[in-house]
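MODEL INPUT / OUTPUT PAIR
PAIR INDEX: 1
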Amino acid sequence: MGVMLGLVLIILIFAVVSTLLLTGKADENYENSTKRNTTNLTLIYVVIIFIGLASLGIYIWRI
């Protein structure tokens, strides 16, 4: 049990250190890609909501 706990702690420390090292690198194009992703997701949600409401309306109308 002690060996397993030691392995878990070593993996945990390695994960924390590697995460901190990777997050230190900034992405120069982050703002532009975030803006594009937000726009794309908004368009997807608008289309899906429109299709869902239209389908609901057709379903209710046909009953």
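PAIR INDEX: 2
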Amino acid sequence: MKRIFLTPEDLLRVRIGAPLGALGETMLASRIVQRKNVAGFSGWRNQVRASIPADFGVLADILPVDDGFLDLITPTRGARSMSAGIEALHLASRIELRNEVDNVIRHRAELGRTPMPNWIEELSGRDGAARQQVASAVESFHAVAFGGRWAHIQAYLEAAAERMARTMATEGVEQMFAGLHPHVRWRAPILEVRRHMACHNENPEGSGLIIIPSLFAWPEPLTLHSTVDKDLPLTLVVPVLRDIGDFAAVWGPRPTNEALTALLGRTRAGALQVIAEGCSTTELARRLGVSPATASEHASILREAGLVDSWRHRNAMRHEVTTLGSALLDGDLGSSARIA
């Protein structure tokens, strides 16, 4: 169990961060591939391991499954796309990379873990060869791990972050914490983070906390720190998956439900499918190839039917499916959805 002691100042500075991006999620995915007991990820893991890239050992070296892995996510924070992540890796401060390397070497020694390979010390070197080696390995593994589905996964994670932010804005930070169960538990003034082994406590001391949803932060949350700016908030990366239904939703579009198409019409059924991935009216219009006014009309009709919820976020109208809408898409109107 990890305990994060949050002062009133920290609670005022809790915020939901943008998802880790392609590079960060790919790095965490490499750790899942190395695990043996991966529950809901087993089918994905077997498929990926059958096509594992030749240079995957580079990632296995720096991202082992135990607690002491090299944090290259913090130095590349804010990079949404893979190209932006690779650029951020090449531009990362040599001092920050040196600090990250020193941290993981020291941490593994304290835990009695196998030492990191010697080549990781070259990550802070001037020639950038080690960084290029990591960048190439990440890109190769990303293509195998996500198989062209990254855009869908990214949209799902962004929608999850928006829902968390909306909960915090409308219902308060305690309710947002409650939504992270069973991974965390709020017992004021302590946020208890589920960890399989004892670890040190955290005291942000007024700097706050950034919470980020992740697909491959599994089976327990991760905490990340900046090694160059002590005033930056602590980052808590929490698993977004709770059950097999979540995994199915995040991993890709549902197969076409011809009965639903017959009921709603092809365009409106398509609109429900797009909204299931989380979108704005503008995004819905673009995906359907219709005008924003027409997309808004489709969303309005689906909302009146109880299949869609909508809310305004800044200057955009966002949409997501309801439990009933999800059940219709899955062709399952069992106990999870009741029509009055």
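PAIR 2 NOTE: Confidence is low (pLDDT under 50) at residues 334-340.
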